[in-house]
């Protein structure tokens, strides 16, 4: 449920009752329990407009405020704040409804949009490395979140499959005669060898360029070999996606070649819109306020990344009808996307009401604060990192004698992969972050393992109880009030995280929720002898709603729960 919206409606009704025109109304969450559950501080902004003292305005609102439903109490504080306490019975009813609902009371958008999330973007003919991790999991979380809230989400994996490197690979493949046995398991080494030939032998380089022309002109032999390289590369990516638990498939790939036929049309459309200027033989778009132009066609007729991105934006907005297009790409590309988005809007490729956003993220660093590398300074392969995460998780739980070998294998994968993903998603995406195995596999702090342990602990309560709770939630004290309030805030958190494309808002909420539940569990006995049955049922239901909320939150992050730890 949208808790803040419900409170806003009550405040708005008070304004209407008092005959004061003040829209839109917006309350904020109170920073301390003694300030209530929510605060309204809009009286100060209205004071000048109405020519009244802020406290006088606040007093008028409180006088007309209904306190027999959502709101239990309202107090004026400071220069004109209104502190609001929600009614325990209302909270209890809403919490009981949420725990009985498969979606935990979270609604589906009344006016959903079509949203495109462009993420992962692996290199062809190379293994995925740690540099692809953040785009892949942040993008997948955003897609999961938008989908859950009701939008129609189209996942797109933009890969570079068009260019000189493929002519080079085909030429080297034919030269070495390995075509018949091309599993080419170590495709990356094959690429390095081909590149070495390309750099050292001008004749080989010319041959490679000829093959590029053949690929682009539709030569069946060259296209067949080209497709083989693409299939091998994507097969590796799919193996990583399966280990990582992300929802990207072969059908989500939209490669550079997909837009190839549209590139001349982009140039024509820019020319028709009066946006093109020639500079040193190249076709450029000069944007007001930017010294560096956007080059869309080189002097030799070749196209650039910007040209392909403009073609993709046109396709996504005009053909697919997207109203939000999110590019989950390294922060270092901020300048590029800022320019391309401006060109797309100014040239009419994308309507003004379409939201274009660069979901930027920082760099993964090692403990010394340098970009994450292997010991010899090489690039860390993503699949090796994930395998190591599983092995480290296995080491941490190997002494648990009550698990079978198969259970330990499955548990280690859930814990290890979850740890890597949560550690990344729990920080502000625009920040660089330190990759630390010890921290991410800790039972303490804001980690995946802490969340999985909290969930497992609640499941142990139900195993001990032996059956599902059946009663209604009744708020018995301040701690239960705070826990129920936090649980009811879940939809607000998800909507804000979706709007800001900020998974860390979800992890911060889950950590606060789990921490508050642990406090509740210690102070409010559930199964202890002597607890009244109504109280026991209520506390079991609060525990049940907490577990379901943790599970749903982790599910949106692409992380599984464990039933026991």
Explain this structure:
With 565 residues, this protein is of the alpha/beta class. Among the domains are: 84 residues, Gyrase A, domain 2 (2-Layer Sandwich); 109 residues, Isoleucyl-tRNA Synthetase, Domain 1 (Orthogonal Bundle). It is built from 20 helices and 13 strands. It has a 4-stranded antiparallel beta sheet. A 4-stranded parallel beta sheet has the order 6-5-10-11, with helices on both faces. The protein has a 3-stranded antiparallel beta sheet with strand order 7-8-9. β5, α5 and β6 form a beta-alpha-beta unit. α10 crosses α11 and α16 runs antiparallel to α20. The radius of gyration is 28 Å and the shape is globular. The protein starts with a helix and ends in a 9-residue tail after the last helix. About 1% of the residues have low confidence.
Topology (elements, then pairings):
Blueprint: H1 3-18, E1 28-29, E2 38-40, H2 43-50, H3 54-64, E3 71-77, E4 81-86, H4 88-99, E5 114-118, H5 133-148, E6 152-156, H6 164-176, H7 187-200, H8 202-216, H9 220-244, H10 263-272, E7 276-279, E8 282-285, E9 294-297, H11 305-319, E10 324-330, H12 334-346, E11 355-361, E12 364-365, H13 382-397, H14 405-425, E13 433-434, H15 437-440, H16 448-465, H17 478-488, H18 490-500, H19 503-523, H20 533-556
Parallel strand pairs: 5-6, 5-10, 10-11, 12-13
Antiparallel strand pairs: 1-2, 2-4, 3-4, 7-8, 8-9
Helix pairs in contact: 1-3, 2-3, 4-17, 4-20, 6-7, 6-8, 6-9, 7-8, 8-9, 10-11, 11-12, 13-14, 16-19, 16-20, 17-19, 17-20, 18-19, 19-20
């Amino acid at each position: 449920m949208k808790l803040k919206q419900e409170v806003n409606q009550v405040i708005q009704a008070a304004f209407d009752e008092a005959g004061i025109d003040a829209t839109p109304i917006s309350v904020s969450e109170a920073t301390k329990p003694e300030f209530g559950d929510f605060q309204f501080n809009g009286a100060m902004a209205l004071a000048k407009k109405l020519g009244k003292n802020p406290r006088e305005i606040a007093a008028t609102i409180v006088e007309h405020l209904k306190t027999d439903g959502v709101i239990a109490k309202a107090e004026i504080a400071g220069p004109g704040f209104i502190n609001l306490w929600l009614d325990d019975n209302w909270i209890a009813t809403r919490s009981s409804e949420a725990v009985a609902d498969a979606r935990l009371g979270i609604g589906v958008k009344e006016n959903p949009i079509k949203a495109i999330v462009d993420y992962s973007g692996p290199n062809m003919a190379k293994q995925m490395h740690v540099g692809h991790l953040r785009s892949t999991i942040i993008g997948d979380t955003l897609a999961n979140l938008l989908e859950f809230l009701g939008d129609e989400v189209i996942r797109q994996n933009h890969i570079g499959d068009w260019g000189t490197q493929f002519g080079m690979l085909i030429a080297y493949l034919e030269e070495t005669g390995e075509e018949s046995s091309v599993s080419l398991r170590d495709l990356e080494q094959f690429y390095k060898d081909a590149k070495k030939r390309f750099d050292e032998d001008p004749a080989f380089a010319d041959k490679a360029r000829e093959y590029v022309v053949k690929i682009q002109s539709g030569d069946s032999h060259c296209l067949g070999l080209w497709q083989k390289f693409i299939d091998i590369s994507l097969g590796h990516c799919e193996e990583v996606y399966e280990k990582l638990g992300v929802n990207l498939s072969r059908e989500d790939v939209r490669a550079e070649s997909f837009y190839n036929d549209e590139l001349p049309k982009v140039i024509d459309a820019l020319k028709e819109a009066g946006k093109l200027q020639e500079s040193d033989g190249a076709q450029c778009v000069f944007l007001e306020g930017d010294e560096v132009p956007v080059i869309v066609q080189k002097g030799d007729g070749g196209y650039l990344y910007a040209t392909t991105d403009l073609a993709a934006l046109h396709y996504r907005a005009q053909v697919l009808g997207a109203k939000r297009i999110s590019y989950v790409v390294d922060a270092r590309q901020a300048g590029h996307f800022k320019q391309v988005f401006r060109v797309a809007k100014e040239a009419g490729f994308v309507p003004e009401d379409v939201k274009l956003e660069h979901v930027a993220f920082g760099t993964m660093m090692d403990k010394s604060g340098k970009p994450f590398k292997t010991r010899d300074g090489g690039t860390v392969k993503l699949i090796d990192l994930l395998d190591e995460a599983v092995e480290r998780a296995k080491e941490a739980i190997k002494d648990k004698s009550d698990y079978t070998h198969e259970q330990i294998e499955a548990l280690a994968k859930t814990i290890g992969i979850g740890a890597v993903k949560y550690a990344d998603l729990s920080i502000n995406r625009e920040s660089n972050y330190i990759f630390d195995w010890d921290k991410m596999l800790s039972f303490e702090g804001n980690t995946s393992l802490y969340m999985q342990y909290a969930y497992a602990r609640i499941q142990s309560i139900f195993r001990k109880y032996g059956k599902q709770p059946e009663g209604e939630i009744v708020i018995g004290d301040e701690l239960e009030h705070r826990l129920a309030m936090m649980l009811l805030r879940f939809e607000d958190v998800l909507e804000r995280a979706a709007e800001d494309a900020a998974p860390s808002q979800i992890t911060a909420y889950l950590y606060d929720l789990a921490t508050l539940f642990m406090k509740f569990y210690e102070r409010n006995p559930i199964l202890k002898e002597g607890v009244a049955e109504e109280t026991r049922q209520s506390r079991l239901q609060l525990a049940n709603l907490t577990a379901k909320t943790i599970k749903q939150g982790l599910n949106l992050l692409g992380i599984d729960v464990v039933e026991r730890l």
